[in-house]
Amino acid sequence: MHFPFCRRKCTYCVLHSRAGVSQADRDAYAQQLAQRIVATEGAAPFKTIYFGGGSPGLCDLTPFGAILEPLRTEDTEFTVELNPLDVTHEKLQELKDIGVNRISMGVQSLDDDILRLMGRGYTFAEAEKAFARIKEHFENAGIDLIVGYPGETSALTPRHARLAKWGLKHCSVYSLILEEGSILAHQIKRTKTALPDDDTVLNRLAVIARFMKDIGLERYEISNYAVPGYECRHNLATWRGEDYLGLGDGACGRIGLTRTRNFGGQTPEVETLSAGKDEVERRIFSLRTREGLNPFGHPDWLPILDRFASEGLLTKINANASLGPTYRLTERGTEVCDTILAELD
Ligand code: SF4
Questions:
Q1: How far apart are the C-alpha atoms of 201 and 217, rounded to whole Å?
Q2: Ligand 1 atom index nearest CA of 54
């Protein structure tokens, strides 16, 4: 479920979201979105529910409680993304009341100067307090971080050590992507600021990966770390190629051979894939995960994967006699996963 509202636009972001929408309009949107679930045939029960954005915390989410209640089970993972500025005890209680059991908070940086440059509108101390508040209500909670913002001088700061005490169950760590049309892209063009080069960013990501392991979070996907047992089931289902319903302004969905994208209109764009393209799309992203890619049924992939294995970018595991080998990214391989996927596609 996508909630396309933000307090203001972060400098690096080109996600589909708007600032300056009134509370009444945001709540009306949430109400309509909840009704769309009712109208969606064959939607239940959900294995996972994910409210992202944008900032879902800017909307009154209470209409979802009664509507989702019969559509989930005790085992359903129900995640809401929160901005630290939206974390109040009242909001957290509202989320508990509608059945949410997992929170993902976008922190992005632990450095106050970088947070200011990003336009995030809070300090590290405020983010730390917000996360502590979340942990009073939700055991299963994690954060997102961005590496490589201009002005960042090192991968780790003394503040990272404090993360060990936060009780994080999950952490997503993304490298900054300079998006055409973002505020940051304009700033860089105007001021001729240099971005950290690729090697610097890769080194920082490797340092962060070791740090995450030290604080008990295992890497289970290129950009994602979790305490074992707390891997995000919603993310895993996506990389494993499962179906998902995408509702709301800015949401994408994948049901059978059909892909939907909804960018601002009432009627989503619909694309129908061939069975072959659908199968490839669903299969290849498992390479991003620790589970790895089994190329069963794709003999054409074997020489490509063997070549990357011989270059030390993949590990070949001969675990299953009937399905053949599975290939998993090595640490160096995580840095070039997109190149490998492009050869398979
Ligand atoms: S990064 Fe998140 S909070 Fe910032 S503008 Fe984008 S969607 Fe909104």
A1: 20
A2: 7
Q: What is the DSSP string of 134-203?
A: HHHH-SSEEEEEEE--TT---S--HHHHHHTTTT-SEEEEEE----TTSHHHHHHHHH-PPPPPHHHHHH
The rounded Å distance from CA 309 to ligand 1 centre is 38
pTM of the model as a whole = 0.94
Assess whether pLDDT exceeds 90 at residue 231: yes
Distance of CA 344 to the CA centre of its chain: 23
Name the fold adopted by 2-238.
TIM Barrel (3.20.20)
Q: Mean pLDDT, the chain, as a whole number? A: 94
Domain with CATH 3.20.20.70 in the chain: 2-238
State the pairing for strand pair 2-3/46-53: parallel
| Distance from Cα 246 to the centre of ligand 1, integer Å | 19
Q: What value does the mean pLDDT take over residues 180-191?
A: 95
Question: Measured from the CA of 53, which atom of ligand 1 is nearest?
Answer: 7
Q: 58: Cβ below 6 Å to ligand 1?
A: no
In single-letter form, the type of residue at position 303 comes to P
